[in-house]
Amino acid sequence: MYKLKRLFTYIRVFLEMVAAEAVSLFLRKKPAYRDLWIVSERGTEARDNGYHFFKYLRREHPAINAVYIIADHSPDREKVASLGTVVPYGSFKHYLCFIMAKYRVSTHIDGYSPDILFFNKFGKLFPDKAKKVFLQHGIIKDDLAFCHAANTNIDMFVCSAVPEYAFIDKHFGYKKGVLQLTGLCRFDNLKKTETPTHKLLFMPTWRSVQRSIDKNTFMQSDYFKIYNAFLNSEALARLLERENYELVFYPHYEVHRFLDCFDTSLPRVKIADFAHNDVQDLLIHSDVLITDYSSVFFDYAYMRKPVVYYQYDENEFRTGHYGKGYFEYRRDGFGDVVETEAELMKSLERIFENHLEPEKLYLDRINAFFSFSDTENCRRNYEAICKL
After folding, report:
1. pLDDT given for residue 317 in this prediction
2. How far is 172 from 145, CA to CA, in rounded Å?
3. Strand, coil or helix: what is 40?
4. Which of these, 145, 139, 109, lies nearest to 323 by C-alpha position?
5. pTM (predicted TM-score)
6. What is the distance between the alpha carbons of residues 167 and 141, in angstroms, rounded to a whole number?
């Protein structure tokens, strides 16, 4: 059923592209489409590097003809509409802007397109001269085959750290000049609060198998059982009560369709959903991050705040998810790597004893890793795009 539905979607997108190509011939000289920049994330949100880059364009370069692609139903639409022009994701105007854009900028490869899967497979059917910019969704630490040059068609690939840049340059196959060491735009908005927020943030990533299973199967998985048990842990309850803290559980976007499977009896544990919570706000307004393999820990480390990696399934994760890259958690990580709840609780106890500061070993690793520790990432990306 899914394959048949996808086939019909491919046909529809192809026909809309053909129609938009024809209409665009009559609109080339219209001011609304001249020297156009389109900016997006996945078409459904404005919370990542795309949003922060668009906000920078509107503030620092208002004369640039830029639009943001976002669905009408998105909870973030009004936020970005207050900055400038928005175009409904998947609308005919989106097709026109996509075809006529001078620059296409997104956090995801082909994220600025009316359909990511279609243009990843069939984009070469519609050749164009637009410059395509991959702002990145996070710092790459694994070998992501879908980001290799053979599987993409981009003119600028953003990197944020020398080890990341060196790894991608060596293994991903991009020609000279495509990789740009400019930093993630969203880092400009990161800041460490002056006083403790009294919140712990628990943000595990997803597993590749989760895309193809239903809720009943998900609830039989170790992922659910282990993490849900932690949300109900007596040891956690005691720690939160003693320190007067709250724990916020916000798993990866791909896991949110299973969010109602999780429950907790602990009054100091909150399960946060996508509609009412912004990832960056959660990162800023918390004091400690617990994750497993999510690259969001780089954002946390950028603020020099403590991290713990709760990895109960390291071997299984590597065989079923992304291939190993340059980053070894025990050798390069910015916090303790633990495999059990008991080890996790010991790490959290030590962090509180250290007054919510990273240990010197981890702070030295953080300082050595990042190429930048400033608020000029949007500017560097803008200048690099202008030089394409």
Report:
1. 80
2. 8
3. strand
4. 145
5. 0.89
6. 8
Which among 366, 243, 237 is positioned nearest to 300, based on CA atoms? 366
Are 37 and 27 in contact, with CB atoms under 8 Å apart?
no
What phi and psi values does residue 48 have, to the nearest 5 degrees?
A: -125, -155
> 277: Cβ–Cβ under 8 A, 6 or more apart, which residues?
250
Residue the block writes with tokens 């991009």: 174
Structural contact between residues 164 and 369, judged by C-beta atoms closer than 8 angstroms: no
Q: What single-letter DSSP state applies at residue 370?
A: B
Q: Which bin fits 322, alpha (ψ -120 to 50), beta or left (φ > 0)? A: beta
Contact 363, 304 (CB under 8 A): yes
User: 204 and 252 in contact (C-beta within 8 Å)?
Assistant: yes
Distance CA 160, CA 183 (A): 4
Six-digit token pair at 214? 């239903």
Name the token pair of 210: 């989760």
- pLDDT for the residue 320: 63
* CB distance 305 to 272 below 8 Å: no
Residues whose CB falls within 8 Å of the CB of residue 21, separated by 6 or more in sequence, listed in order:
99, 126
Q: Is the distance from CB of 289 to CB of 205 less than 8 angstroms?
A: no
State residue 310 phi and psi, 5-degree precision.
-95, 95
Q: Which residue in the block uniquely carries the two structure tokens 């996808």?
A: 6
User: Which residue in this structure is represented by tokens 């608020």?
Assistant: 375
Low-confidence ranges of the chain (pLDDT < 50): none
Beta strands in 161-205 (DSSP E): 179-181, 199-202
| Predicted pLDDT of residue 208 | 75
What is the end-to-end Cα distance of the chain in Å, rounded?
42
Question: Is the Cβ–Cβ distance between 156 and 385 less than 8 Å?
Answer: yes
pLDDT for 224: 95
d(CA 180, CA 159): 6
Residue keyed to tokens 């990895």: 311
Element (H, E) at 284: helix 279-284
The distance of Cα 7 from the centroid of its chain, to the nearest Å, equals 28
Return the pLDDT at 322. 67
Q: What is the pLDDT of residues 279-332, one digit of tens each?
A: 999 999 999 999 999 999 999 999 999 999 999 988 788 776 666 789 999 999
